[in-house]
Every structure is written in structure tokens, then in C-alpha cells.
């Protein structure tokens, strides 16, 4: 569902979460980000950011981390109701994860390297080790990202996922879905928007290399 130039999923995923579109501005720019947050009544001072290095580290955060970029990680997890978790994307997948009662949430930046390295599994392990929540009690939602329709790939990615040499296009979402099922996450949802060819709505590094990014946020219920 698109509402006021943001994307919100329409499924069982009922805790606060959103992904901006390019109409909201470049969310890597602090002034534009703060302006957007003010327009939708989000306290920008309560956001915690992942530094994003295309790795597999997921870190637990709290109110003490507000306003900071957590070093060397691509995923954040919390049970603190007073903060928002944030990642930036321009083709990679924003992966939202929540416990059944939405008391614990996580947000993961999943490009192909992180996906191949096991960042979704890393997040699932954090749910269990830090909060005692097993995979069957996790909901997952994949936000807007580059679709298989536009994601032509090379040999390095094919080797990472053991794909056939003659396979030209790759679906990040299908691979995420495969990993959800393998990990025992039974409730998962995939957003159908493609950031690459829907040029009027999203920034896309694949379409046109850019430093501009959309933003995804999640908050505990």
C-alpha cells in the first residue's frame, strides 16, 4: 500500500514499519530525512542506523544508541519500544522481522553478498539467543528492491548461490524466501515493487549509480 509517498505492507505484519519513496527525498541527507520525519510525526532523534558494509553482522540496540550509526553491521534488532531501526537501500532488500507479538523487531539490509553470507540466519539466531524467540514465531516481510526482471547477474553471484551458468537474471526475493523456509520462518511476505524499473518511485543504483537512498524504518509495538 502506498500512503503519503511511503510504502506500507498489507498483510499480517502489523507493527509500525515503512519504506520511503524518492518523493520523500534522499534519506541519506540528514536535512531531508529530518524534514520527512517531521512531516509524518516521527522523532528523528530516536532513530538508530546500521552503518551497512554488505556484511552479515546483526547487533542488538537500545535507546542509548539513538542518533548513531552502529559500526560494521547490516542489521539491527531491539525490544526497546522507544526507538526506530533504520536502513538505507537503492536496490538491496530491506528485510523486516518481528516476533509474533511484535515485542522484538529487526531490520536487515540484504544485498546479494549479505544474503549469500547468511545475514537472515544471523538475525534469526539473534532472536533466539538474545530474546528466546524461535524461528516459527517470527514474521518476515521483504520491502521494495530490485526485481528479477531487472537484476542481470554475473559469475560471482552465480557461484555464491550455485546457479547455472546460463541463468541471466536472479531473484533476491526468491532466495530470501528459500532461506526463510529453511530456517523455519513460516510467515513471510514479499513486496512486488521493483526499485530499478519503477524509476518514478525509487532510487536505483543499478539503473543509474547514485548516492541517494530510500529509507526503511521499523518500531516495536
Q: What can you tell me about this protein's structure?
A:
With 221 residues, the chain is α/β, with parallel strands linked by helices. The protein has a single domain, classed as CNF1/YfiH-like putative cysteine hydrolases. Helices cover 21% and strands 24% of the residues. The chain is built from five helices and 13 strands. A seven-stranded mixed beta sheet has the order 1-2-3-13-8-4-6, with no helix packed on it. A six-stranded mixed beta sheet has the order 5-7-10-9-11-12. The longest helix has 13 residues, at 119-131. It is globular, with a radius of gyration of 16 Å. The two termini are 20 Å apart. The mean pLDDT is 96.
Question: Averaged pLDDT, please?
Answer: 96
Compute the number of helices: 5
Query: What's the count of strands?
Result: 13
Low-confidence stretches: none
- As a percent range, the share of strand residues is 15-25%
Main β-sheet description: 7 strands, mixed
Cα-atom radius of gyration = 16 Å
SSE topology:
Elements: E1 2-3, E2 6-7, E3 17-20, H1 30-39, E4 47-50, E5 58-60, E6 69-70, E7 75-78, E8 84-89, E9 93-99, E10 105-110, H2 112-117, H3 119-131, E11 138-142, H4 155-160, H5 172-183, E12 187-190, E13 214-218
Parallel strand pairs: 4-6, 4-8, 5-7, 11-12
Antiparallel strand pairs: 1-2, 2-3, 3-13, 7-10, 8-13, 9-10, 9-11
Amino acid at each position: 500500500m502506498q500512503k503519503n509517498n511511503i510504502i506500507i505492507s498489507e498483510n499480517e505484519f502489523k507493527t509500525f514499519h515503512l519504506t520511503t519513496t524518492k518523493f520523500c527525498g534522499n534519506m541519506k541527507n540528514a536535512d531531508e530525512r529530518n524534514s520527512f520525519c517531521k512531516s509524518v510525526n516521527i522523532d528523528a532523534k530516536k532513530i538508530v542506523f546500521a552503518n551497512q558494509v554488505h556484511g552479515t553482522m546483526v547487533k542488538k540496540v537500545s535507546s542509548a544508541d539513538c542518533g548513531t550509526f552502529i559500526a560494521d553491521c547490516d542489521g539491527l534488532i531491539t525490544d526497546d519500544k522507544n526507538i526506530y531501526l533504520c536502513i538505507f537501500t537503492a536496490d538491496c532488500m530491506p528485510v523486516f522481522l518481528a516476533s509474533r507479538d511484535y515485542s522484538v523487531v529487526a531490520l536487515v539490509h540484504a544485498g546479494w553478498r549479505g544474503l549469500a553470507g547468511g545475514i537472515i540466519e544471523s538475525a534469526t539466531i539473534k532472536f533466539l539467543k538474545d530474546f528466546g524467540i524461535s524461528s516459527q514465531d517470527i514474521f518476515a516481510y521483504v520491502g521494495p528492491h530490485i526485481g528479477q526482471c531487472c537484476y542481470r547477474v554475473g559469475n560471482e553471484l552465480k557461484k555464491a548461490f550455485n546457479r547455472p551458468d546460463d541463468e541471466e537474471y536472479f531473484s533476491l526475493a526468491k532466495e530470501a524466501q528459500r532461506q526463510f523456509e529453511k530456517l523455519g520462518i513460516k510467515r513471510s511476505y514479499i513486496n512486488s515493487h521493483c526499485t530499478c524499473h519503477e524509476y518514478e518511485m525509487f532510487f536505483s543504483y543499478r539503473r543509474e549509480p547514485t548516492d541517494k537512498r530510500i529509507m526503511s524504518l521499523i518500531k516495536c509495538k
